Amino acid sequence: MKDGWRVAGALAAGGFLTIAGVAHAEGRAVAIMGATVFDATGAAPHLANVVIKDGRIAEVGPGVKAPRGATVINAKGKALLPGFFDVHTHWTPAGDPRISPEIANAYIAAGVTTVNDFHQQPESFAPRRQWIGTMASPHVNFVARMSTPGGHGADWADTATTKWVSTPQAARTEVKALVPYKPDFIKAFTDGWRYGASADNTSMDEGTLTALVDEAHRNNIKVLTHTVTVERGRAAARAKVDIIAHSLQDREIDQQTIDLIKASGTAYAPTLAVYDPNKGEGAAATPEARKRSEIKFGYALHNTKALHDAGVVVALGTDAGMAGTPHGVSTLRELELLVQAGLTPSQALIVGTANSAKALGESDDRGTIEKGKRADLVLVAGAPWTNISDVRKTDRVFVDGKLVHGPGVKLPLANSQKAMPAVKVAALIDDFEGGKERSSLDTLRLNDTDGGIDRSVQVAQVIPRPATDHALSIDAKMSIKDDPNAGVIIPLTRGSVQPVDARAYKGVRFEVRGDGAYELGVNTLNGRWISEIEGGSEWRAVEVPFTALKPAPGRGGAKGAWTGEDLLEVSIGGSRPAGQKLWAEVDNVTFY
Questions:
Q1: Is residue 585 within 8 Å of residue 510, measured between CB atoms?
Q2: What's the mean pLDDT in 157-161?
């Protein structure tokens, strides 16, 4: 792993946290005195003092003295542990880029100091790293996504967010295409089995998965898979996948599969929290579904214990962000469920710290309380190696040696931006002259079609426009469903993360020709706005003033009044009856 790719979580440099009454000054050593230390090395809990300097553990031991001038924290009667990991989370499941501060705060408050985010398009990695670096946050690893056409993970996402592959050659090509974005990991949605609730979406064949893993490893990138059956677990192991994410839950695991997973060096993150039949929201709604859920969960618990007992590295993941699986507290719930599966509290704590660091290739840097390790630490009021639920009694949390949760610390939610500050935007959005895939703003254009396994098929490409250079051509065949759609989204900044301020303009102007009615869409932080437009056989210029935009119907529609200061994307597309075709040509999209 290339640690320079990672987010330092707002804490590598001073000056950007809104913290009232922090117990130590910038650059001063911190001495945590008298704690009962659970260091996650396998040693028994023991009384020790820990000194932190420059974000690292400088000294640890019973006879360690507080350096002169250090901030001293009296930890007598409290337990000090490494910060917890969550190797499987989704930070923005609703696509709302504003909610990162709340999510970051939820993890910090739970003592979670390293997470993997499985939900972002690679174009957004760099701006998200920049943004998260301005807030109190755990370290965030950004994970690129790959699936089969129509497979799980691709059934809702565009092909920029989830790469579609179905052959070894395609897998290698798409891994190479991801490398410039510096993903921390890759997640392969290899198992289409939908938990008994609906049909198989399609599963990735073993040859494709093997090529994907091999090419990723050639580029020093580890691979996690979405895998939920014992047979597919075997395929993941044979492909040398680094971590099987989700529980093998269709039956009890057999010894041959256990041996294969162990021999491959594949780790296992069962995400029990997302499958917990008692989790409330998102739990099974009918008696029949509840029974299926309980049976699968029983297999999940059994298989976790069997793999752990066999010496397979078990890591902690939750699938947080999914229904009934909230950020932060679900990580603590996962620790409790590991104990329910039969692990001892001490074993569960090692899963959530040292084992997870090992599975991610980060154990040289964090995951245990040892001299030289990153000072990601959590102090709790209790003895969680005896009563695992004591992990909920968070007292203080340190990330990179900085106190980010505890007495005197005010998490920066109330005083920090729910989105990156808006930037000014040039009038020209896209004239389709700069490149085949990127806009005049140097953003990646996105195909915008209906979701699902059966979706509209679209080809959008830059074509010559006689006498005026080039235009964008959109050709699509509508899927067989109600209200299919097709079109193109033009992000106004990389990955649609940072909003733009368009208050200097009156609206959007463009040239269009086509076969009927279309829709101009403007996505903002507060939802989507739309206006209907008409295209004919001849080119015509269209001006859509912002005052003509209306909130889009449905869940994604705008809430509140138009402000013009929080724009994310401009889209042009349309709908036709099921099975019919749509075509349009667009040029010179600008603000005016």
A1: no
A2: 85
Question: Contacts for 409-412 with beta carbons within 8 Å, 24 or more apart?
Answer: 409/19, 409/20, 409/21, 409/22, 409/23, 410/18, 410/19, 410/20, 410/21, 411/105, 411/108, 411/109, 411/136, 412/17, 412/18, 412/19, 412/101, 412/105, 412/135, 412/136
Average pLDDT estimate for 294-317: 97
| Predicted local distance difference test score (pLDDT) of residue 416 | 56
Residue where the block lists tokens 């005896």:
386
Closest CA to 513 of 494, 477, 541: 541
pLDDT in tens, 498-515: 999 999 999 999 999 999
In the structure encoding, which two tokens stand for residue 492, read together? 């106004």
Q: Residues 355-377: what's their mean pLDDT?
A: 98
- CB-CB contact of 350 with 38 (8 Å): no
Among 554, 588, 372, 580, smallest CA distance to 471 is for: 588
C-alpha gyration radius of the chain: 25
Predicted pLDDT of residue 411: 66
- Say which amino acid occupies 195: Y
Put simply, whether the predicted model's pTM sits higher than 0.90 gets the answer yes
410-428 pLDDT, tens digit per residue, is 765 444 567 889 999 999 9
Residue 486 near residue 478, CB atoms below 8 Å: yes
Round to whole Å and give the CA distance between 508 and 549: 10
For residue 331, CA distances in Å to 84, 305, 353 come to: 8, 18, 11
Going by their DSSP bridges, the two strands 185-189 and 222-226 should be labelled as parallel
Amino acid 469: pLDDT = 92
Using an 8 Å Cβ cutoff, are 385 and 393 in contact? Answer: no
Residue 356: which residues within 8 A CB-CB, separation 6 or more?
A: 85, 87, 114, 269, 315, 316, 367
